[in-house]
Amino acid sequence: MEDGWTGRLHRHKYLLLLLILICALIVQSVDRHLVAATVIAELLVGISLFVMILVVFEGRRGRFAAIGSGVLVIALGWVRYLFPDAAHAWMDILEKSLLMVFHGWAAALILRDVFHQERIRTDDVLGAVSGYLLAGGAWENLYALCAILIPGSFNISPDLAAQFGDANAGGGLFLYFSLATLTSVGYGDITPLRGPVTAFAMLETVFGQFYIAVVVAQIVGMHMAQGPRGRGGE
């Protein structure tokens, strides 16, 4: 029988992940010219990767691959911050590529876990929300890659660009655009100007609507199938 902190972690693993992701999202929205915000953002990236490895990646091969990718991402982030003169474009490209795959992979594993549950719990619902945010993170890094490889792909309002500093580094700028696109909000202060970014934005919008429709239908269907006795938060 599971008990102690390991049992609580297993029962509330997605709650922990969601809290970390929300904290990271809030910190990334803060002015990146503030040194404390940048340091905290880098720390939260490392913590979020560690938590994902702990609660999402369960197979030995997958976990080893995730650990290797996570360590490399953290190292690249701190090298860029501590030694800005040594940073090169290829480091940003590698970091964004790894994060894109990492977040997309984690979102897919969470969805698989939710869809294979025999009974739906509150933590599974939180897992679906976490997967939604992680999918937005995967698209975020794809947009950041496009900004590096295809300059002029985005039109960014001056005030917004000034807040986040170097647009090519990504930061919270493309996370903001990604989540606005994923939810079909589209405020217009950052817009794609050319392909393939315009195509990626359209695909993300379709993905966001499809995700909500399918996941909500799955959760509601499982909830109804459980009956009154099977429904519960735990």
Summarize the helices and strands and which ones pair or pack.
Elements (H helix, E strand, L loop, with lengths): L3 H8 L1 H16 L6 H21 L4 H23 L6 H27 L6 H28 L4 E3 L1 H7 L8 H10 L7 E3 L4 H34 L4
Antiparallel strand pairs: 1-2
Question: How is this structure best described in words?
Answer:
- With 234 residues, the chain is mostly helical.
- Helices cover 74% and strands 3% of the residues.
- It has one domain.
Envelope shape: globular
Sheet with the most strands: spatial strand order:
1-2
Number of domains: 1
**Rg calc:** 19 Å
Structural class: mainly alpha
User: What is the ordering of alpha helices and beta strands?
Assistant: HHHHHHEHHEH
β-strand amount: under 5%
Which regions are unreliable across 5 or more consecutive residues at pLDDT < 50?
A: none
Average pLDDT confidence is 80
User: How large is the count of helical segments?
Assistant: 9
Q: Measure the end-to-end span.
A: 16 Å
- Describe the main β-sheet briefly: 2 strands, antiparallel
- What level of helicity do the residues show? over 70%
